[in-house]
Amino acid sequence: MSDTYAVRAEALEKRYGEKRALDGFDLAVREGTVHGLLGPNGAGKTTAVRILSTLVRLDGGHATVAGLDVVRQSREVRARIGLTGQYAAVDEVLTGRQNLEMFGRLFHLGGRRAKARAVELLEQFDLTDAGDKGVGAYSGGMRRRLDLAASMILAPAVLFLDEPTTGLDPRSRGEVWDSVRALVASGTTVLLTTQYLEEADKLASRVTVIDHGRAIADDTPDGLKNRIGGDRVEVVVAERSEIPRVVKVVARVCDGEPEADEDGLRVHAPVTDRVSALTEVARTLQDEGVRVEDIGLRRPSLDDVFLRLTGHRTDVSEAKEAAA
Ligand SMILES: Nc1ncnc2c1ncn2[C@@H]1O[C@H](COP(=O)(O)OP(=O)(O)OP(=O)(O)O)[C@@H](O)[C@H]1O
Ligand SMILES: [Mg+2]
């Protein structure tokens, strides 16, 4: 792994009126890696990406991208980056190929090179077969891949991806992840914002957690998961009276202390070997004749991360709960 940083931000400040969108935000992204920026709605992810990609002026602090100052050398920075926004920028009426050729011309490639680059990118993002179909007929995953391809026209050193898979079904999400991995294998550094711990875990070698415009943790995905206790086996019973027996079984089979939620009729405990622990718990409960409503594996969510790091849940989930 390289020791140089593709992105560095120190004490970034950005205010919108009274609102502090960024409030002393720090970030360091190693060259040649995928770095996750994980946070709930309104945490400041898009604002950070906009500042780093020179679209928005900062009010305080200092940031470099590819070693260049985002304020004083904004033109040079722009020549070295790609950006895929939270909302797809491709034209519905055009075909995938026409979209890429149009972006190529926007980047002054000239007609012949724009055409050739479109062919390469359709191939790289597995869109060759769909290339001559109108984008209106693309699935969500195909559209995001086309969006990624468009931001790669000039093979940027640093690519900013703002929530590239929000709203996609699991299969499309997997396709986008594959494309991101391929990009990094070809040498691009990626800063990816996401609201999904699972996505950061799958793609990123390091994750910064952002809350209220500030980095509240910076760690490897495993480090983060360890802090919050990792994966858990969860058993739901039909009747409260079954809980003590389930606790006993779970305590015997799982690695850590089980927790019982009497009102939710749930028992859960941390596990390291997910699948074998699940199988063992299911088998033992069946052997002992315990009536079980549901049993499964639960991965830690963004909410679990927040609860552990801040002592409160994300504002978004609290608001949802209050409304319910
Ligand atoms: N142009 C703007 N004018 C006023 N307020 C803004 C503007 N852009 C962002 N904000 C506010 O700054 C805060 C951070 O917003 P930002 O869009 O960076 O969050 P985010 O982490 O990208 O959220 P999401 O997950 O919803 O995209 C929010 O409270 C938002 O309302
Ligand atoms: Mg955003």
UniProtKB/TrEMBL annotation:
Pfam families for this protein: ABC_tran, DrrA1-3_C
Protein keywords: Antibiotic resistance, ATP-binding, Cell membrane, Membrane, Nucleotide-binding, Translocase, Transport
Places the protein is found: Cell membrane
Domain of life: Bacteria
Signal sequence, renumbered to the chain: none
Domain ABC transporter as annotated: residue spans: 7-237
Bilayer topology annotation: Peripheral membrane protein
Sections of the chain in a coiled coil: none
MF terms (GO), sorted A to Z: ATP binding
Principal cellular location given in the protein's record: membrane
Keyword rRNA processing: no
UniProt key word Nucleotide-binding: yes
SMART domains in UniProt: AAA
Family affiliation: Belongs to the ABC transporter superfamily. Drug exporter-1 (DrugE1) (TC 3.A.1.105) family.
Record protein name field: Daunorubicin resistance protein DrrA family ABC transporter ATP-binding protein
Organism: Streptomyces plumbiresistens
Lineage: Bacteria, Bacillati, Actinomycetota, Actinomycetes, Kitasatosporales
